[in-house]
Amino acid sequence: MTQLQSEVLGSARGDRNVKLSEVIERYRKRLESMDLPDPVAAELHTALAISFDSLGLTDRAQEQFALARQRELRDPPAMRRTALVGKRHYATMLGGIGKLQEAEPLLREALAEYVAMYGEQDKETAVTRTNLASVLLERGDHAAAEELYRVALPVMQATMGRHHFATITAMTGRAAALHKLKRVAEAGTLHAEACALAEQHLGAEDPATLSSQNTYAAFLLDTGKVDEALPRFEALAEVRARVSGPAHPSTLRIVSNIAVCHERHEHYEQAEAIHRRILEARRSAGGGKELADLITRFNLAVALHKQETPAKLQDALEVLAATVADAEQVLPADNWRLAVFRQHQGIVLRKLRRFEEAETALQAARAVLEKALGTDNERTRFNWAEFAALYEAWGRPDEAAKWRSKMPAK
Length: 410
Known about the structure:
Blueprint: H1 2-11, H2 20-32, H3 38-54, H4 58-72, H5 80-96, H6 100-118, H7 123-139, H8 142-159, H9 165-180, H10 184-201, H11 207-222, H12 226-244, H13 249-264, H14 268-284, H15 291-305, H16 310-330, H17 336-351, H18 355-372, H19 378-393, H20 397-405
Helix pairs in contact: 1-2, 2-3, 3-4, 3-5, 4-5, 5-6, 5-7, 6-7, 7-8, 7-9, 8-9, 9-10, 9-11, 10-11, 11-12, 11-13, 12-13, 13-14, 13-15, 14-15, 15-16, 16-17, 17-18, 17-19, 18-19, 19-20
């Protein structure tokens, strides 16, 4: 392992322009040519997979996870720990690219194994608990996510310290869960604390600092403080592009939030231009059908149909049709994001006065949203409001009134 490290890092000596991704790629190629014992090879493939994932290169990460798994299966008892680390990181990666249905059971398995091996008060157990919490948060199970973060945080603070990047990331996650549970004051306080700790102890350009600040700015945006959020996003985007590259998923998430700020100000043409730049950057970097790409394409469609012209509406419908087709290959049928994509097909079809098609699209979305998120969720109720808007435009006021009656009084 020492020889491998010396060869790879030595090959980059004297080249100040070498990228971390290039060093890791050299590492991968050299590893392929070496005859290593299975436990060593499994650890190295897992380390490479984690590195590729951190760079946003999930396809390469999955290849390395698969190679590690092949080695681990040759002697599972001898590589139990390595396999467990790999399972946790692989599941976390799946959650990050939107494969929540696959990620959740793997993380639940990993959490049970960590508890059995190391106990409830171990730092790895706590980190795994927060990984599961992040998946549940994305799935919309906000109460369960908040509880997992709340249980894990004291263990992480005791074993890793309040200033560790994983602890700060968990604080940010819990703040996001609190926000979703409408405990806004608590969420704001925790967001601010996490950002202050990160900047003071990790530095302004650390990925955990940038992530916590982006989440805090998104919190400000969601609570209506658009003019406070926008300059934060713009400053963050500049730093993140310098640190991670302009096409890195984390950079593009921040830039996407800038577009959302413009949408809140009804500057839809500016938002459209930003979303198109993001998609072009992703295509140039080899992306196209991962969750981040699908969300950006959806956001582009929203910016288009909000402009209300016939040409923009038709563009939006075409973007949504392609997005839904690709999302069906990436996301499970009962995923709420896929339902939201279909719902916006219904909105655009209603604006184009293609009412029967719009009704079909909204019905397909409703079935998933009510089951996946529940009838109290804001996305579900937005769907009901769209049914009311559809039937009003269709000249069926009685049915529109029925759907309006389902909405809670303001």
